[in-house]
Write a structure and sequence with these properties.
Strand order of the largest sheet: 9-10-13-14-15
Structural class: alpha/beta
Mean pLDDT: 98
Number of strands: 18
Radius of gyration: 20 Å
Bound molecules: (4S)-2,6-dioxohexahydropyrimidine-4-carboxylic acid, zinc ion
Strand content: 15-25%
CATH architecture: Alpha-Beta Barrel
Number of helices: 13
Length: about 425
């Protein structure tokens, strides 16, 4: 017995079917797309009035397991992802211990399979214990199931280590993701350095801390003829550098988060520690440039940087609170409200930035598109459904979101992963 999605207006990155189709999902695969498929003994979902996207993919999530299961686990993070419309996620290695060997990678994949709600691809560390000094065994990490490596949360600061990492990663065809931040320049800064940090008397983190690494890694990628993927871009200048690099044929890709195309550092005036993120919220000019970068494809992917933290950890002064906000369950609503309904992105571009492009960047096969023969990963979205973000509705274990109380338009109705319904509103 399979699953048929009836009245499906399919939104693929390269094509939008205006005439509703039927989609048959069997044994984890999309087996047939046609105007009419006999129901037989298949289960039926009616998608009339909704949009049917390829399963959404988030390349940047923090699941906190192992080590901080009080913030999130593979299980609670998977539930949160399914509710947010995601069918595949990559989880970052800044856990305790760090994801820097095959045993931990295999453990996370095994737990994710047991939970069975979303495909989880652990991101292995670039350096052992994220110490920035010794490279991990990249081939071992790849064999264990990693699709990418990163020291996320920390920047690989040594140019020589980054050079070696890029060379090895190229040899074994694994993506490197850089967290771009020169910590010498950041110092003890905890919000964007600028007028607001001055007025609030909060230590500033200057944009140059991001852009010097963006520029350096673009140069390394150019010199070594390698790929590099730049995480959570937050600045106009970063977008300009990446746009220039792409125009030169340099193999750089990049991602941006909903909070960086939605909020400015004005949000920090509330002293709400959920507005404390790394990289920090920037200026209106930066927000506009991130939107422009997403529109013209300079920024390839939308990711959440879902970073759960407990109430206890966040309920402290702005200086001492950990960086990060949750994002899995608000990403579709924010993208639709801020980008699609405001005509920054078309629906097809949204399907690209949230599914096709992440699949392409991370090399996830048979994902990112609704076509026969691809994996049965599907996200059904009601583009016009209005809803309010409420703290009690989060399925994430943590609630650190600055969007609580925000009204959004566009909501995930059904998530299907591997042909199985993993969420239904
Ligand atoms: O805000 C952030 N939180 N940025 C990061 O790079 C790390 C993340 C975390 O792990 O909490
Ligand atoms: Zn990061």
């Amino acid at each position: 017995m399979g699953l048929i999605i009836k009245n499906a207006v399919i939104v693929n990155a390269d094509k939008m079917h205006t005439k509703p189709q039927n989609i048959l999902l069997e044994k984890g695969e999309i087996t047939k797309i046609a105007a009419d498929i006999p129901v037989g003994n298949h289960k039926v979902i009616d998608a009339a009035g909704k949009l049917v996207f390829p399963g959404l993919i988030d390349l940047h999530v923090h699941l906190r397991q192992p080590g901080r299961e009080d913030k999130e686990t593979v299980e609670t993070g998977s539930r949160s992802a399914a509710k947010g419309g995601f069918t595949s996620i990559m989880c970052m290695p800044n856990t305790t211990p760090v994801i820097d060997n095959a045993m931990i990678v295999e453990g996370i994949i095994k737990e994710a399979k047991r939970v069975g709600l979303v495909n989880v691809y652990p991101v292995g560390a670039i350096t052992r214990g994220q110490n920035g000094k010794e490279l991990t065994d990249m081939a071992e990490l790849k064999a264990a199931g990693c699709k990418a490596l990163s020291d996320d949360g920390k920047c690989v600061e040594s140019s020589q280590i980054m050079r070696l990492a890029l060379e090895y990663a190229k040899m074994i065809e694994l993506l490197l993701i850089q967290h771009c931040q020169d910590h010498c320049l950041t110092g003890s800064g905890v919000m964007n350095e600028g007028y607001n940090s001055m007025v609030l008397g909060i230590k500033g983190d200057p944009g140059i801390a991001e852009t010097v690494i963006v520029a350096r890694d673009i140069e390394l990628a150019h010199y070594l003829k390698t790929k590099v993927h730049l995480a959570h871009m937050s600045l106009k200048r970063s977008v300009e550098l990446i746009r220039f690099a792409k125009s030169q044929g340099i193999q750089v890709t990049a991602e941006a988060c909903p909070h960086h195309f939605t909020l400015t550092d004005d949000a920090v005036k509330s002293f709400d520690t959920s507005t404390k993120v790394n990289p920090p919220l920037r200026t209106a000019e930066d927000v506009a440039a991130i939107r422009e970068g997403l529109k013209d494809g300079t920024i390839d992917c939308i990711v959440t940087d879902h970073a759960p933290h407990t109430k206890e950890d966040k309920e402290t002064g702005f200086d001492n609170a950990p960086f990060g906000m949750i994002g899995l369950e608000t990403s579709v609503g924010l993208t639709m409200t801020e980008l699609v309904h405001k005509k920054v992105l078309t629906l097809q571009q949204m399907a690209d930035r949230m599914s096709a492009a992440p699949a392409r960047v991370a090399g996830l096969e048979r994902k990112g598109k609704i076509v026969e023969g691809y994996d049965a990963d599907v996200t059904i979205i009601d583009p016009d459904k209005e809803w309010e973000v409420k703290v009690e509705d989060f399925w994430s274990k943590s609630k650190n979101s600055p969007f609580i109380g925000t009204k959004l338009k566009g909501r995930v109705e059904v998530t299907i992963c591997g042909g199985k319904i993993t969420y239904q509103a």
